Write a sequence for this structure.
């Protein structure tokens, strides 16, 4: 292949690749006494650490390049716990135990949650179930105007 | 982070695999293999399947267009180029360079390029993160607004059943994973489907992507109030 063509192709391929995010997932260094299977640690340079305990996630910030040593990861987890006011493994485990109770949630509790949500978004339910669902959907989607219809979307192009 | 990973790997999969399938087609047109299937081998050979890895990428339309162009199917090729141009992510000014350079390569160049692309494909799929959407492909699928509109219509058509609408809401999230609204749709859809784990997952992930999102914060507050 001629060098100029090869250069252009490589640039094209690399541009396509580097417009995407490269994510490194690292094995967590878990503080002693904590169940390793309950913790997920995701690292991305300049972004975050997640301590995931079942459905509860604790966020911290990673400010250096990966990979980092086990010791550094452990310190980072401890620091994250501290930042979030989780001062001991005992407290962390308590939170996890509470989180486990979410697994036992019933349909009645979910219905109750939907009712709470309806009240919180100040929606007066009417006889039209689908219209109520769409109203809730649009009131929770707060970044933009309410969702457009397909027709409105196409006419806006 | 899982959603962003899916976005990134899906975008890379759609872009690289479509370029590779285009190269396979150009090789075949250039006399390689008795059939296109023979050139493609066991790799993905379906444009719709490739595009479904992430509709945010305009490249499947671009490379499908070039493949059709190379087979003298000019009208179909033009339609593909038009569809690519609808996507704001497509660089209209410089995008043509890709097509021009690929079209100029001889079979030796193409084989060398294919070797590089298949290596990249293997790395992308080995991670096991990218997965194709079940939402059927059309030219507007790059837009989360459009996909949400389809989801809403599906919801109306199914009388409030989120099962089918969820496909569109989740695809919208993969296409635009930095907008809290798309997490909110998925969280609400999960809630009405009775899946509290997924509801919490979408609220948590959404608040990471968009910490000040009013609707997601409201849901988080309610969830925390009800925490056992």
């Amino acid at each position: 292949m001629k060098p100029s063509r090869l250069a252009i192709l490589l640039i094209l391929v690399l541009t396509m690749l580097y417009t995407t995010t490269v994510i490194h997932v690292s094995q967590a260094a878990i503080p002693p006494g904590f169940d390793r299977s309950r913790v997920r640690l995701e690292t991305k340079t300049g972004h975050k650490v997640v301590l995931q305990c079942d459905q509860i996630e604790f966020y911290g910030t990673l400010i250096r390049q990966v990979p980092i040593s086990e010791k550094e990861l452990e310190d980072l987890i401890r620091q994250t716990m501290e930042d979030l006011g989780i001062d001991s493994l005992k407290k962390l485990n308590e939170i996890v135990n509470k989180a486990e109770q979410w697994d036992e949630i019933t349909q009645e509790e979910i219905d109750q949650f939907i009712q709470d949500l309806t009240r919180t978004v100040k929606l007066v339910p009417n006889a039209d179930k689908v219209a109520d669902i769409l109203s809730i959907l649009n009131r929770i989607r707060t970044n933009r105007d309410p969702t457009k219809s397909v027709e409105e979307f196409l006419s806006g192009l | 982070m899982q959603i962003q990973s899916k976005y990134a790997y899906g975008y890379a999969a759609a872009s690289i695999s479509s370029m590779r399938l285009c190269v396979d087609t150009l090789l075949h047109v250039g006399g390689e293999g008795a059939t296109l299937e023979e050139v493609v081998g066991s790799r993905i050979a379906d444009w719709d399947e490739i595009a479904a890895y992430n509709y945010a990428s305009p490249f499947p339309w671009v490379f499908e267009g070039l493949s059709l162009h190379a087979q003298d199917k000019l009208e179909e090729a033009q339609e593909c180029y038009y569809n690519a141009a609808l996507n704001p992510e497509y660089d209209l000014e410089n995008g043509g360079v890709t097509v021009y350079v690929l079209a100029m390569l001889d079979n030796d160049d193409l084989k060398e390029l294919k070797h590089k692309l298949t290596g990249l494909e293997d790395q992308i799929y080995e991670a096991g993160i990218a997965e194709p959407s079940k939402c059927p492909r059309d030219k507007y699928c790059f837009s989360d607004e459009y996909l949400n509109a389809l989801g809403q219509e599906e919801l109306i058509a199914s009388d409030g059943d989120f099962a089918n609408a969820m496909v569109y809401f989740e695809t919208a999230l993969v296409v635009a994973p930095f907008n809290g609204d798309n997490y909110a749709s998925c969280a609400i859809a999960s809630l009405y489907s009775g899946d509290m784990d997924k509801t919490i997952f979408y609220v948590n992930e959404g608040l990471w992507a968009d910490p000040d999102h009013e609707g997601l914060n409201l849901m988080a507050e309610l969830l925390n109030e009800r925490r056992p």
Summary: Residues 105-145 of chain A form one domain. Residues 3-18 of chain A form the longest helix (16 residues). Chain A touches chain B through 54 residues (CB under 8 Å). DSSP finds six helices and four strands in chain A.
